[in-house]
Amino acid sequence: MDKIKMILTKITSKENRWLFLSAIILGLISGLILSGGSSETSPTVTKKGLTAKDHDHQKDQIWTCSMHPQIRQPNPGKCPLCGMDLIPASSGEGNIGERSLKLSPNAIKLAEIRTMPVEQKFVSKEVRLVGKVEYDETRLGYITSRVPGRIDRLFVNFTGTRVRKGDHLVRLYSPELVTAQQELIQSADALRNISGKVTGNIRESSERILSAVREKLRLWGLTPGQIKKIETSGKTQEHLTIYSSMSGIVINKNAVEGIYVNTGMRIYTIADLSFLWVKLDAYESDLQWLRYGQNVEFESEAYPGEIFKGKIAFIDPVLNSNTRTIKIRVNLKNPGNKLKPDMFVKAVIRSRLSESGKVIDPELSGKWISPMHPEIVKSHPGKCDVCGMPLVKAEDLGYLSSKDGNETAPLIIPSSAPLLTGTRAVVYVAVKGKTGVFEGREVVLGPKAGDFYIVKKGLNKGEMVVVNGAFKIDSDLQIQAKPSMMNPDGGGPVPGHDHMSENIDGKH
């Protein structure tokens, strides 16, 4: 104590007093210089180490839950629904719209956001179908017995035999046929006996009887040459030879030698394989690309690399409830009989749609088509060369009119642009005049054509749509509880993440 008193006495002595005060003042000035200014401009530090400016920023900060973006609180803490720590919500975007998001140039680069303009042009689609070769039903023929009798000879005794029109097929014995021939001989003799002796009604009656007998034999299958031979020879033929009425392949044989047949019984079935049908299976989503008269290309495994061509001749009006497909029939020529019935084929149909949904085919523009035979196409109205039906305009069958131009081209966007939920389609559009701002928009899509979607409603030509990174933008909007792909109204919980039944501890 005595030493301290001595030191204080020396400091407060008259000689050392001013030197001590000068040292104190010099120390204060040095402190102010090192701190960067006066104590009045220095930030006030709180007990937690935060400045007043930080407190003001925290006062404006909104805190949300990454799992429940509808939670918006002014202070950090725990989510009242799931107990997760709250995170700061994005702020400072300004008035950019409820469905919009603003990204900095660096964020756009990190998210790999890429945009493309909405275009108006025609796009093509390849519709790929599978099917099977079948007989042309219009070129099937049946060889039947026109009179009852017994088959004594089958000249064609196995299936697969190729026959020509006029070839003899069956030798048939029929008592009724013998009786009819006797009537023919008697009628012919009676007419010759009265020739020149009587006139008037008697002669006319004899001529009508002879004519009726001739017609009956003709309808039973005898040729005019056979009938004339019976008349002139006066001898009946015990057997009737049945000839083929068409050329083709015998695909079915229903009789054997010695069998008795009745009138109308089928003996052979003959198919003309120079023309065939191809039945293709089309899904419901393919129908908008298919029209009557379209060209079809297909190939078979039997002839790899060889392309066969035909035209759509019929679209089944009824859907198959088991396969959920619709039959498409294609008519085609079969030179050399290369294609065989029941062969499997793979077909390709190339189509372009206009804005109105009509198929574009320059070859059929302004043409007239047969409604029964699509191979008959003319540049003027008239009748079908095959069936005689009046031709119809190609436009009536769903084709684009020749007077329509490029203004009918549909709006298209890349297939990677829309986010599809099954019930809605959302695209993100770069807002014109606002750098880095992207707006969500619901659109109505038409059919998909290759790598593009046809847009029916919701976009305008030239608008820039996000084709890469749209899901990242949508995810950010979901975190901010804004309207998004899965939450059209915003604010609600993300579907599939329902924690309403959980308490803070995460227990049910």
How would you characterize this protein structure?
The structure is a single chain. The longest helix has 20 residues, at 175-194. α5 runs antiparallel to α6 (201-219) and α5 (175-194) packs across α7. The strands form eight sheets. Strands 7-16-19-18-17-20 form a six-stranded antiparallel β-barrel. A four-stranded antiparallel β-sheet has the order 4-27-26-25, covered by helices on one side. With 508 residues, it is an alpha+beta fold. The protein is built from eight helices and 30 strands. It has helices spanning 2-11, 17-35, 52-60, 105-110, 175-194, 201-219, 224-233, 470-479, and strands at residues 63-64, 72-73, 87-88, 100-102, 114-117, 119-120, 124-135, 140-144, 149-154, 162-163, 168-173, 239-243, 248-253, 260-261, 266-271, 275-283, 295-300, 308-315, 325-333, 344-352, 368-369, 377-378, 392-393, 411-414, 419-420, 425-430, 437-442, 444-449, 452-457, 464-468.
Radius of gyration: 47 Å
Task: Please state roughly what percent of the residues sit in beta strands, choosing from under 5%, 5-15%, 15-25%, 25-35%, 35-45% or over 45%.
Answer: 25-35%
User: Which runs of at least 5 residues are low in confidence (pLDDT < 50)?
Assistant: 34-57, 494-508
Give the N-terminus to C-terminus distance in angstroms: 72 Å
Strand arrangement across the biggest beta sheet: 7-16-19-18-17-20
* Main sheet overview: 6 strands, antiparallel, barrel
| Number of E-type strands | 30
DSSP helix fraction: 10-25%
Number of helices: 8
Please state the average pLDDT score: 81
Helical/strand content category: alpha+beta
Principal-axis shape: rod-shaped
